[in-house]
Amino acid sequence: MRILIFMCFAFIQVAWAGKPVELRTSLWPPYQVMLKGELSGVAMTAVKCIFEGLDEGVNVKVMPWGRAISDMKSRQADGLFTSIYSEELSSNAVMSSPFALEKWYVYSMGNVGSLAEGLPLDTRFAAVRSSSQFQWLRSNGFNNIEEVNEGGQLLLLLASGRIDAFIADDRYYNELEKGHYSAFRGSLPTFNRRFLRYTPLGVYFTNTFVDEYPEFMEKFNNQITECAGTPIALSALEEKTIRRIFERRLRPLLSNREVFRALTQQNRMSAGLAPSVKNKLDETWRRERAGEDQPFIDDLLARQVSVMFKAIQDTSDGLFTEIFLVDRYGLNTAQSVVTTDYDQSDEQAYAETIAKTSERLFISDIQFDASSMKFHVQVSVAIKGEVDRYVGMLTVGIDVEEALRQGSGY
Fold this sequence. Notes:
The protein is of the alpha+beta class. The protein has 16 helices and 18 strands.
């Protein structure tokens, strides 16, 4: 009891001249952990860094997740972390940009069905009480859920056959394996693992707090980039899946006659264009993109190769989010959807392919689209012409979650 009371009132305070922001959290390794009586972990480190960067104070109290939500709803707290997107919370609060990303897998002893088609609703699950996984299961119609107090019980229940499956972030599962290895006398059962979804984690701030400090969220989100560490990168297995998809389904475009014909024509038009002309074309593109009258954009979308790209995207079951082609100068030649810019020569993909005269695939870090709640990567490759000269670059946007669902071995 003494330990529980201590944990319930554990807090960290960053001093400042004004009133500290009141946040609530619960222990959830590796994001929030207690080390030698102090609150630490990946998320806590990021939150502390963000508030120090803002030169604002913060009190963080540790308590059960249900009580943390209650504190926020009753305005005893200004916010809570670390949370997935929640319709319940979003009715009373605003979620920050993600500063961490969980990769959720379904762990089972046998086959629990095709995850691409959806998990059977009668699957016997277990989840830590009030955890993100528990919230997700309940909100998606799963009611056969055994609630447990700590993660190690998930391993024991699954190994004993009392449940069919549980959901866990891969890093959290690794922590469970290390912490409960001895419980299985040095021999953990071999669980099946299938990718389920990416889950962005952020901080929820109450509507009252955001209304009182209207500039806070923008400043907080901007500070995340400085404090949340490196960009979200693909794991080795995820990159292998992305490469396999490109080779099997997109590589043939690099030798397509219509693609080469379009690049030949576009390179003739782009050759010798002064920088000022390219800038004007790019400005026209961005202006049309923001308006309703789009003759420049419409002309490019109507091209034969653009129509072909759109057909490939539309029949990919959500796998491809965009396909576009640029000439050797970085100017748009064909595309399935409207790109942000007309001139791509200042993009990293162009610098890593055509500018380096490299035929290696360039795969971006994972990018999160807050409007669609989707995660995608861009795969780019330079296209070599008949006389050993690079004539353009193909870029494909791939929905990473869909790739992992459709890919084998996940």
